[in-house]
Amino acid sequence: MRTRISHACVLTLDDVWHVYPDGYVTVEDDRIIDCGEGRGDGSADREIDGRGGILMPGMVNLHCHAAMVPFRTMGDDCPDRLRRFLFPLENSAMTEELVYLSSLYGIAEMLRSGTTTFVDMYYFEEQVARAAEESGIRAYLGETVISQKSPDAENAGEGLARCARFLQDWAGHDRVRGIVAPHGTTTVSPQALQAAHQLAREYDTILTLHASEMDYEMDAFRKKGTTPIRFLDELGIVDERLLAAHCIHLTPDDIAVLAARGASVVHCPGSNLKAGKGIAPVRELAEAGVPVGLGTDGPSSGNTLSLFDTMRLFPIAQKTRYHDRRLFPAREVVYAATRGGARALHADALYGSLETGKKADLVLVSTEGLSLFPMYNPYSALVYGAGSADVYLVMADGRIVVENGRLTGISLTELKSDLQRAMRPFSEAAEKYRNMI
Ligand SMILES: [Zn+2]
What we know:
Layout: E1 2-11, E2 19-28, E3 31-37, E4 46-49, E5 53-57, E6 59-64, H1 81-93, H2 96-112, E7 115-122, H3 125-135, E8 138-145, H4 156-169, E9 176-182, H5 190-202, E10 207-211, H6 215-223, H7 228-234, E11 242-246, H8 252-261, E12 264-267, H9 269-274, H10 282-288, E13 292-294, H11 307-322, H12 330-337, H13 339-344, E14 362-366, H14 378-385, E15 391-396, E16 399-403, E17 406-407, H15 412-422, H16 424-430
Parallel strand pairs: 1-4, 1-5, 6-7, 7-8, 8-9, 10-11, 11-12, 12-13
Antiparallel strand pairs: 1-2, 2-3, 5-14, 14-15, 15-16, 16-17
Helix pairs in contact: 2-3, 2-15, 4-5, 11-12, 11-14, 12-14
The chain binds zinc ion.
Residues 63, 65, 210, 245, 297-298 line the site of zinc ion (ZN).
């Protein structure tokens, strides 16, 4: 099957930042076989008129807990909500079915907003995998390992066993890849962190965790005279497999360690700014050569799973932090949301840009929206003016998953009603925390 999208403004995000103002991309099965200016040669089974649109690579969401949809808008203004009600409510009311339906809902939201790859960590992760496989999205999924009771394990040992089983079950899958996901630097014992790292080595995969994010986390390490990154490094965990989420509070020494070991960082401004936690030093990370991509975090942290929202917040926060308008020009922001994410996952050769031979992960954004006129700079239009409502078409791994702004393979009406039914016991359990939420 050969599909061609033509007459769009094509942002390739290739090594020399090629832009084809009236360009085309030709896709055969799951790969891009040609792209350039003009109409392209030969015939295609399907021709899509991209006139008036911006064609960009599919976006990569490097940090999410898609199944946390039922928590959205719950205690948004409540301090320390993680320990006060998130953990307890998760343990009492999160079920396999709820994880499956919520994940599918979260994935629908991501596809609809132009995300074609996501990294996720949660419980009952096999249900997230089921949802990801059905939906067509590319996914890196890790069963969360935590040194306390969780919805699907009594302790870290059980979590590690579940994680190992997941890695085994999904080994060799084309789109769904198992990763290792210990929860964080203070919520997992040093022994379990090392065992998690060992598992990541064994299966040759990514290890992701929350790091240098929470105030209580920073206090705990400060009292010991060290930092979360130093602590992880002493355990031997900081290496090229590490995808550290948040990294808000980094010392110059932490940044040097991350750079020297080849680790990557996920920047989640939507979640960090809303929680008042601070603004990560992305300028220093970039200067040190640490690959930085973007994450939405879970649906109750950043509230939307749209990377358009994250793209807008990222440069706004950085420019404010450093009091410098020149920082992070729009094309670098689009890079972070696409190829930068692929690079952080060591998958730059496979997807992340619109180039011959790469996977056909792409997004056609309509520019008919009121806030997208006029358009002197298409990158700026995407970062500062566009939103998920402007996404017209999304192709993930060669399959059209959104067309004319609508999901092609998921019935939202049906999914929402199934989710509402499955959420009933959860919502009843949440009543206990009514005074906080
Ligand atoms: Zn998170």
